[in-house]
Design brief:
Structural class of chain A: mainly alpha
Strand content of chain A: under 5%
Distance between the termini of chain B: 43 Å
Strand order of the largest sheet of chain B: 6-7-8-3-9-10
CATH class of chain A: Mainly Alpha
CATH topology of chain A: MetI-like fold
Order of helices and strands of chain A: HHHHHHHHHHHHH
Largest interface: A-B, 22 and 25 residues
CATH superfamily of chain A: MetI-like
Number of domains of chain A: 1
Number of strands of chain B: 19
Shape of chain B: elongated
Order of helices and strands of chain B: EEEHEEEHHHEHEHEEHHEEEEEEEEE
Oligomer: heterodimer
Strand content of chain B: 25-35%
Helix content of chain B: 10-25%
Structural class of chain B: alpha+beta
Radius of gyration of chain B: 25 Å
Distance between the termini of chain A: 41 Å
Largest sheet of chain B: 6 strands, mixed
Chain lengths: 298, 346
C-alpha cells in the first residue's frame, strides 16, 4: 500500500509525450537557427545563381556564370589558395603556442594559473580594430619592435615588419590564440596528471611520455583548436589587410570588394558559397579525425 | 648484500613547511614496509622522494647500494601503484601492462609471456582488450598492480592504492596484495593512513608524524609497545584521563585518586591511557587494581560490543563491554583497569 501512496503523492509534472512533444521542445531553437542562419544562407545560395547586369546589384536569373568565372579567372582561385594557406599556417602556429601555453597552465597551481589565465583572456576583451592599432605601434620603422631591437644592438638600422605576411600571421595568431588555449586547457583538465608520473615511473623519458601518453590524450583538442583557428582565419579580412602586404588579397576581402565596391552581389555570393564549402569540408575532416579517439574519454 | 632501499637523513621542505624531517631507515630485500601516519605527516612525500617525483633538499636515497636521489623517475628501478590507478585511458589493459616492459627495453618476444603471466597473477585473463573506462574500480587497481609488478622493479611503491575502494573490496584486494607479496617476494613500500591495513600487511610499520618517524617496528610492537604518546594514541582506540600530581595524585575534577603504580609519578600534569577493551565496568571493576567512579552518559551498540560512555569528573571515557551491562544513562558506575594495561605519559 505504501508504494501506491508514494506514487500518488508524486507531484504532477508537465509531461512531454511522443515525437510531436519532443519536436515542440525543439521549436524555439529551430526557429532561431532557421531565421538567422538557414534563411540567409539559402538566400545567398539563390543569389549566387543570379546575374549582374548594368548598374543593378543583381538581376533575377538562373546561371552558373558566377561559378564559371570563379573557376576560370585565376586571380580568384589564387586568392582562395592564398587564403587557405594563410589559414593553415596561422592555425598551425596557433596550435603550437596554444598547446605550450595550455600545458603550462595545466601544470601550474595556485595564483600563477589565475594570472596566466587572465593574460590569455586579454585578446578577447579588445576589439580586432584596437588590436590592429596596437600592431601599428609595434611593427613599423619607428615602432616598439624596431626601437627595442636597435637599443638591444640586435640590428644596426631601423626595420619595419609592417605590411608583411609575418605581421599578418602574428596578428591573426594573436586573436585566435585564446580560443585555442581554452579549448586545449579543457582537454588537459580532463587528464589525471598522475598518468604522466606513471609513464615516467615505468621508464619513459619526457619525450616518450609526450609521444605515448600526452599527445594521444590531447589529439582531439589539437584537432579542434586547429580547426577553430582555421575556420576563423579563413573568413577574416581586417587583420590581413591592415598588417599584411597588398599581395595578401584574401577571399574575405575579395567578397567585401565585390559586394561593396563593384556591387556584384551574385558573384560575391558565389565566392561566399565556395568559402562556406571549404569550411564545411574542413569541419567534416575534423569530425573524422576526432571521432576515432573520443570513445576513450569516458 | 646491501639493503634493497636505504634512506639517509632525508629532508624535504615545501616553502616554509617541513614535509620530511631527517628521515632515515633501510628496507631489506623482500620486506614489506608500511609508512603509516595522518594526512600531512610526510608519508606520501617520503614515498614520492623514493619514486623520484620530488627532489630531496638533503640526504641520500640508495637502491641496492646505488645512489638514486638525483636520478629522474624513469631511471630509477621503482614502480608505483597509484591511488587513482593512473592507468593510461587511451591504452588497453594489455597495452597498459606492457608499457613498462617496452620502455625498459624488454625484447618483444619476452613481452607476450610476461604480460600473460601478469594478467594471470591479478586474475584478469580475458580483459586484455578492454579500456580502463570499461573496468570496475577493483579491476583498475588490479591492472595498476600488474603494470607495476610486471617490470619486476627493485622496489614497488604503493600510494594508498585501496583508499578509493569500498570496504569489502578493500579487504579482498588487501589480501591479494599480501598473497602476491608472499608468492613473488617483491620489496614494497606501502603508504596508508589506515592502521588496520598497515597492521595486516606489513613486516614492519613506520609511524610518521610531522615529517618524522615516531617509531619503526613490527606491527605487534607498534601496537603493544608504542614508543611514545603519539604512537599510542594514533594506533588503536584509547581513553585518556588527565591527571595532576599536586602533593597527591588527583583526577580531573580535583578528587584524590589512588592508582597502583610501580613508581610514584613526579609533580605536574600527566595523561593516563587505557584501551576501551581493557576497561572494566560495574562488578567486574571491583576486583581491579585501579578504580574510579563515573556516571554513564549514553551507550552504543557496535555489533560485537556495547560501548558505554562514562563521564569521569568532566572527562568522557568509553568502555567496551561484551553483552549488555545492567546500567542505563545517569547511573553511577565504577570503572576499573589493571595496572599492566595502563600507560602514563607526562
Amino acid at each position: 500500500m505504501t508504494a501506491v501512496t508514494l506514487s500518488e503523492a508524486r507531484p504532477a509534472r508537465l509531461r512531454v509525450d511522443g515525437r510531436l512533444g519532443q519536436f515542440a521542445l525543439l521549436v524555439p531553437a529551430l526557429a532561431l537557427v532557421t531565421i538567422f542562419f538557414a534563411l540567409p544562407a539559402i538566400y545567398m545560395l539563390r543569389m549566387s545563381f543570379n546575374a549582374h547586369e548594368g548598374g543593378q546589384s543583381y538581376s533575377e536569373a538562373w546561371t552558373f556564370a558566377n561559378y564559371l568565372r570563379l573557376l576560370t579567372e585565376p586571380i580568384y582561385l589564387f586568392s582562395l589558395g592564398k587564403t587557405f594557406l594563410l589559414a593553415l599556417v596561422t592555425a598551425a602556429v596557433t596550435v603550437v603556442f596554444a598547446y605550450i601555453f595550455a600545458l603550462y597552465l595545466w601544470l601550474q597551481r595556485g595564483w600563477h594559473k589565475l594570472v596566466f589565465l587572465a593574460i590569455a583572456l586579454c585578446p578577447l576583451l579588445i576589439s580586432e580594430i584596437s588590436i590592429i592599432f596596437g600592431w601599428w605601434m609595434f611593427f613599423p620603422n619607428n615602432g616598439v619592435l624596431s626601437i627595442t631591437l636597435l637599443q638591444l644592438g640586435l640590428i644596426e638600422d631601423k626595420i619595419s615588419l609592417m605590411y608583411t605576411v609575418f605581421a599578418a600571421i602574428v596578428g591573426l595568431t594573436y586573436i585566435s590564440l585564446p580560443f585555442g588555449i581554452f579549448i586545449l586547457l579543457s582537454i588537459f583538465d580532463g587528464i589525471d596528471r598522475r598518468v604522466l608520473e606513471a609513464a615516467s615511473d615505468l621508464g619513459a623519458p619526457p619525450l616518450k611520455t609526450f609521444a605515448e601518453v600526452l599527445f594521444p590524450l590531447t589529439r582531439s583538442g589539437i584537432v579542434v583548436a586547429f580547426s577553430q583557428a582555421f575556420v576563423w582565419t579563413i573568413g577574416t579580412y581586417a587583420t590581413p589587410i591592415a598588417l599584411g602586404p597588398d599581395s595578401l588579397w584574401t577571399i574575405g576581402l575579395e567578397i567585401y570588394q565585390q559586394m561593396n565596391t563593384w556591387r556584384d552581389w551574385p558573384f560575391a555570393s558565389a565566392l561566399a558559397m565556395v568559402l562556406i564549402l571549404l569550411v564545411l569540408g574542413s569541419m567534416a575532416l575534423t569530425r573524422r579525425l576526432t571521432g576515432r579517439d573520443v570513445t576513450h574519454h569516458v | 648484500m646491501s639493503p634493497a632501499l636505504e634512506l639517509v637523513h632525508l629532508s624535504k621542505r615545501f616553502g616554509g613547511v617541513v614535509a620530511v624531517d631527517d628521515v632515515s631507515f633501510s628496507v631489506a630485500q623482500g620486506e614489506f614496509l608500511t609508512l603509516l601516519g595522518p594526512s600531512g605527516s610526510g608519508k606520501t612525500t617520503t614515498q614520492r622522494l623514493i619514486g623520484g617525483f620530488e627532489q630531496p633538499d638533503s640526504g641520500e636515497i640508495r637502491i641496492k647500494g646505488q645512489r638514486v636521489d638525483r636520478l629522474p623517475p624513469y631511471r630509477r628501478d621503482t614502480a608505483t601503484v597509484f591511488q587513482s590507478g593512473a592507468l593510461f585511458p587511451h591504452k588497453t589493459v594489455a597495452e597498459n601492462i606492457a608499457f613498462g616492459l617496452r620502455m625498459r627495453g624488454v625484447p618483444a618476444g619476452e613481452i607476450g609471456p610476461r604480460l600473460k603471466r601478469a594478467l594471470e597473477v591479478v586474475r584478469l585473463g580475458g580483459f586484455e582488450d578492454r579500456y580502463p573506462a570499461q573496468l570496475s574500480g577493483g579491476q583498475k587497481q588490479r591492472v595498476a598492480l600488474a603494470r607495476a609488478l610486471v617490470v619486476e622493479p627493485a622496489i614497488v611503491l604503493f600510494d594508498e592504492p585501496l583508499s578509493a575502494l569500498d570496504l569489502s573490496l578493500r579487504l579482498q584486494l588487501r589480501g591479494e596484495i599480501k598473497g602476491l607479496h608472499e608468492e613473488l617476494g617483491f620489496t614494497a613500500i606501502y603508504v596508508t593512513h589506515d592502521q588496520s591495513e598497515a597492521m595486516a600487511m606489513s613486516d614492519r610499520v613506520a609511524v610518521m608524524n610531522a615529517g618524522r618517524i615516531e617509531q619503526i617496528d613490527r606491527p605487534e610492537n607498534i601496537f603493544n609497545r608504542p614508543a611514545n604518546e603519539f604512537v599510542y594514541v594514533f594506533i588503536g582506540e584509547s581513553c585518556c584521563l588527565p591527571l595532576t600530581v599536586n602533593g597527591a595524585l588527583r583526577a580531573p575534577d580535583g578528587r584524590p585518586i589512588d592508582l597502583s603504580l610501580a613508581r610514584p609519578l613526579p609533580e605536574g600534569a600527566h595523561r593516563l591511557y587505557v584501551r576501551p577493551k581493557q576497561l572494566r565496568i560495574g562488578s567486574e571493576a571491583e576486583v581491579c587494581e585501579n578504580r574510579i567512579l563515573g556516571r554513564i552518559t549514553f551507550f552504543e551498540y557496535l555489533g560485537d560490543v556495547y560501548r558505554y560512555h562514562v563521564d569521569v569528573g568532566g572527562v568522557g571515557l568509553f568502555v567496551d563491554h561484551a553483552g549488555m551491562a545492567p546500567f542505563g544513562p545517569g547511573d553511577q558506575v565504577l570503572l576499573g583497569w589493571s595496572s599492566r594495561d595502563m600507560t602514563v605519559f607526562q
